[in-house]
């Protein structure tokens, strides 16, 4: 990638403008098929409404894409997050079933997720295995491990504390929304108010030169995968709490792809470098809004995947470097202020 | 002396022989022809798809769409044989054209729009799976007498039945081996995997080769779908989820470098057999749960990735040593 521009960062609003526009279009489509989309009620001490639903249902992908954004910024990728979700959900459920408190269960799930993240980080940073391969190992084996924990069954539980994380509310707002907003704020401040974000971008742009510049890229890479594992663990706990059970086979299935998609829609390059967690989160909301359009429009759910695929292709084509070049050339060849024709100065000189 | 490029293949082969010997020592019944015949029959669709995946990975790419394409092919065949009266052979030709074209379109998108194969084939995966859903969400049985004829074809050895689809897989592997090592297309694939820039400078037609690679992968996924429909006698849009991962795992266990440029189609064949062997062992044992398959395959994957890493590292070290030696040699001369 090109070297980072010198000078102040362009305003965040300008950076996330395309994503906001796409989100606006997706929400407008929602209103078009369902006029009461923006209506939010307060009933039984809880907010109700389609908009709240989008925020709530988007929680797992939003959580995953926080970690995924950081990983992709280092020129990596984490394919294992779906499997880590299954492991974390299984661990939390198993702890609760054994009679531990929900706090211990969540801590154990986070520990499991952190361990998975450390493993990925170790493979990538120490053994220098390319990230897509390194995380593939856990993607294949992870579901097996999750099934080992649940012993092949769907572990159900009725611990109110744990269920609250997925289905409860705090001051009327569903808990998952609060969790992902809080974590997003925490991580964004963590990387933007310190030099961490810049260091991560430096690794993604050129790891060798960042190391020569004195960045401890090895530790930082491990940390990035650790964060991704922790985010996945939290998402896994929420998904398990939502259905009051841990399903090792289906929890988080294909969510790694949705998370990567959210990051890509958020305009982050898969080749690493500059990143924006906020843009990725908007990407996650775009995906969820599209799901909501398809649901509300009453189209047969069979069309869900086809529409999603076409949408992805559209967004990718717009963002592809070749098309970007083409638009740039189109603009450059359009009408623009011509430089002063040289002969006029010659005439002046002659005069 | 053994060339280091052949070492991963030999280690795969040794792993297979060792694994088979271990299985046979635990359960002597596994030495029968019947087990071997079933190994070929049960893994036929995976093997055919893995040949295509080998070409994609050799070129440095990846194809995540094959599982969905297999499911789409099955549903397409089932629906078309249910609703129309055309002959299955015509339907086969139709679906192969369709999937090859689909692969070629993905290859063209990757090359001309300069997008990473990972994302393009991910969109392709959604698209093919979605198309299968649109055709039918239920499992559609296939009841055509031509299917019964094809399923009834087998070659009998000692009570073991080597079925048509197993033979088709072996044939696909043979054609794949010849294509990879004895044709210009194969050489271009290896060159592309070694580095696109270098390949372009060498005069490899990058556009044609990239499109060709993904067309081959799509076409073989279609063939795999046909085999899968022969194997199950049905088309179901939820079938073969995650087959792309199994295929990638088989290719890696077969000794192909995931960064592209190094590897053998024959290695993939033994990768498939090793994975099939693990499953057979678990069935024979009866007390082990099915999820151990995933864990063991994950462990094998890790071992082979480590092995590749070690070999690359050793090769680099040797190259550096050779460079140093020539450098000191020339210094001494002058």
TrEMBL record, chain A:
Where are the bilayer-spanning segments? Answer: 12-34, 54-72, 79-97, 103-125, 132-150, 162-189, 219-241, 253-271, 278-299, 305-330
User: What GO CC annotations are associated with the protein?
Assistant: plasma membrane
One Pfam family of this chain: BPD_transp_2
The UniProt entry lists membrane topology as: Multi-pass membrane protein
Where is this gene product found? Answer: Cell membrane
Which keywords belong to this entry? Cell membrane, Membrane, Transmembrane, Transmembrane helix
InterPro entries according to UniProt: ABC_transp_permease
Instruction: Drop me one GO molecular function for this one.
Output: transmembrane transporter activity
UniProt entry tagged with the keyword Transmembrane: yes
Q: Which PANTHER family match?
A: ABC TRANSPORTER PERMEASE PROTEIN YPHD-RELATED-RELATED (PTHR32196), GALACTOFURANOSE TRANSPORTER PERMEASE PROTEIN YTFT (PTHR32196:SF19)
Task: Report the protein name in the record.
Answer: Inner membrane ABC transporter permease protein YtfT
Natural source organism: Tropicibacter naphthalenivorans
Automatic annotation (TrEMBL), chain B:
Report membrane topology.
Multi-pass membrane protein
A single MF term (Gene Ontology):
transmembrane transporter activity
Instruction: State the protein's name.
Output: Inner membrane ABC transporter permease protein YjfF
GO cellular component, as recorded: plasma membrane
Question: Where the protein is mainly located, per its record?
Answer: membrane
The UniProt keywords, alphabetically, are:
Cell membrane, Membrane, Transmembrane, Transmembrane helix
Signal peptide (residue range)? none
Its localization reads: Cell membrane
Q: Which chain regions cross the lipid bilayer?
A: 47-77, 89-113, 160-180, 211-231, 237-257, 264-283, 295-315
State the organism named in the record.
Tropicibacter naphthalenivorans
Superkingdom in the source lineage: Bacteria
């Amino acid at each position: 990638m090109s070297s980072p521009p010198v000078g102040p960062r362009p305003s965040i609003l300008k950076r996330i403008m395309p994503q906001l526009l796409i989100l606006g279009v997706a929400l407008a489509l929602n209103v078009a098929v369902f006029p009461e989309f923006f209506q939010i009620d307060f009933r039984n001490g809880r907010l109700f409404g389609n908009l709240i639903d989008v925020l709530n249902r988007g929680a797992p992908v939003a959580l995953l894409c926080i970690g995924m954004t950081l990983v992709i910024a280092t020129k990596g990728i984490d394919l294992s997050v779906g499997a880590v979700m299954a492991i974390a959900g299984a661990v939390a459920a198993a702890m609760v079933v054994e009679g531990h408190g929900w706090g211990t269960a969540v801590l154990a799930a986070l520990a499991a997720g952190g361990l998975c993240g450390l493993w990925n980080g170790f493979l990538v940073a120490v053994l220098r295995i390319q990230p897509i391969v390194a995380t593939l190992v856990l993607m294949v084996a992870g579901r097996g491990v999750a099934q080992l924990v649940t012993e092949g069954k769907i572990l159900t539980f009725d611990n109110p504390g744990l269920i609250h994380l997925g289905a409860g509310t705090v001051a009327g707002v569903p808990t998952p929304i609060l969790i992902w907003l809080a974590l997003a704020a925490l991580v964004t401040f963590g990387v933007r108010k310190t030099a961490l974000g810049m260091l991560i971008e430096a690794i993604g742009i050129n790891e060798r030169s960042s190391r020569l510049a004195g960045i401890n890229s090895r530790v930082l890479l491990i940390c990035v995968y650790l964060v991704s594992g922790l985010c996945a663990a939290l998402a896994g706990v929420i998904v398990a709490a939502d259905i009051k059970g841990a399903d090792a086979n289906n929890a988080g299935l294909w969510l790694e792809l949705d998370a990567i998609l959210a990051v890509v829609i958020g305009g982050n390059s898969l080749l690493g470098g500059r990143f924006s967690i906020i843009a990725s989160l908007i990407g996650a909301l775009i995906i969820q809004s599209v799901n909501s359009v398809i649901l509300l429009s009453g189209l047969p759910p069979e069309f869900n995947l086809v529409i999603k695929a076409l949408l992805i292709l559209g967004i990718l084509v717009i963002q592809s470097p070749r098309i970007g070049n083409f638009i740039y050339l189109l603009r450059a060849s359009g009408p623009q202020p011509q430089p002063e024709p040289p002969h006029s100065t010659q005439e002046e000189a002659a005069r | 002396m053994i060339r280091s490029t052949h070492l991963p293949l030999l280690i795969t082969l040794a792993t297979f022989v060792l694994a088979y010997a271990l299985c046979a020592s635990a359960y002597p019944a596994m030495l029968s022809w019947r087990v071997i015949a079933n190994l070929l029959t049960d893994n036929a669709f995976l093997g055919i798809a893995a040949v295509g995946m080998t070409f994609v990975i050799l070129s440095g790419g990846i194809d995540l769409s094959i599982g969905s394409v297999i499911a789409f092919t099955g549903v397409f065949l089932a629906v078309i044989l249910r609703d129309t009266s055309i002959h299955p052979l015509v339907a086969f030709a139709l679906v192969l054209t369709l999937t090859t074209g689909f692969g070629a379109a993905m290859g063209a998108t990757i090359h001309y729009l300069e997008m990473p194969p990972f994302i393009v084939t991910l969109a392709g995966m959604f698209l093919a799976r979605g198309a299968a859903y649109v055709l039918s969400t239920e499992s559609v049985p296939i009841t055509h007498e031509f299917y019964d004829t094809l399923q009834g074809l087998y070659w009998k050895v000692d009570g073991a039945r080597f079925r048509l689809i197993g033979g088709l897989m072996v044939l696909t592997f043979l054609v794949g081996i010849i294509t990879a090592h004895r044709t210009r297309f194969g050489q271009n694939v290896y060159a592309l995997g070694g580095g696109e820039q270098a390949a372009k400078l060498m005069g490899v037609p990058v556009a044609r080769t990239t499109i060709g690679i993904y067309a081959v992968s799509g076409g073989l996924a279609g063939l795999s779908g046909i085999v899968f429909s022969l194997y199950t006698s049905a088309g179901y849009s939820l079938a073969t989820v995650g087959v792309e991962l199994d295929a990638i795992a088989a290719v890696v266990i077969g000794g192909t470098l995931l960064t592209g440029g190094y590897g053998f189609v024959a290695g993939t064949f033994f990768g498939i057999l090793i994975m099939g062997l693990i499953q057979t062992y678990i069935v024979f044992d009866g007390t082990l749960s099915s999820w151990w398959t995933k864990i063991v395959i994950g462990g094998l994957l890790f071992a082979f990735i480590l092995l590749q890493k070690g070999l690359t590292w050793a090769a680099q070290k040797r190259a550096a040593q050779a460079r140093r030696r020539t450098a000191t040699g020339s210094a001494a001369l002058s």
